[in-house]
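Morning. Coffee machine broken again, so started the prediction first thing and wrote up yesterday's gels while waiting. Chain of 132 residues, entered below exactly as on the submission form.
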Amino acid sequence: MHEMSIALAVIGQVEEAAERAGDVTAVRSVRLEVGELAGVVPDSLSFCFELACAGTLLEGAELLADPVPGRARCAPCAHEWAVGMPPSLTCPRCGGAAGDLLSGRELRITAVHWEDGATPAAPTREPIAEER
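Came back before lunch.
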């Protein structure tokens, strides 16, 4: 179950960001972009995240997953389409092979809301993790 390793990596990155920020007392929520082609089962990730947060600064934090649909662009005709699941990488317009997979592989932290000594639920404004 690679969702547990993903959950642990997310927790580690959030803890590092909280440490850099200083006086963080609790993490309330973590928002992720999860591409439909990333091979992640959202319910399994939520379950693993909840288990892995026990005893950490993130205990009780909510995991919010924003799905990102897979999209491709045909190199020969420049048509773009939703690839769906299972992915269809053949252009529905001309039958050519997809030249570019534009989205759908994302797995990144986009926001964290935490409490610190000064301000409750202060959100971060920049991603703290890059695409896997």
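The first strand starts at residue 24 and ends at 35. Going to sketch it on the whiteboard this afternoon.
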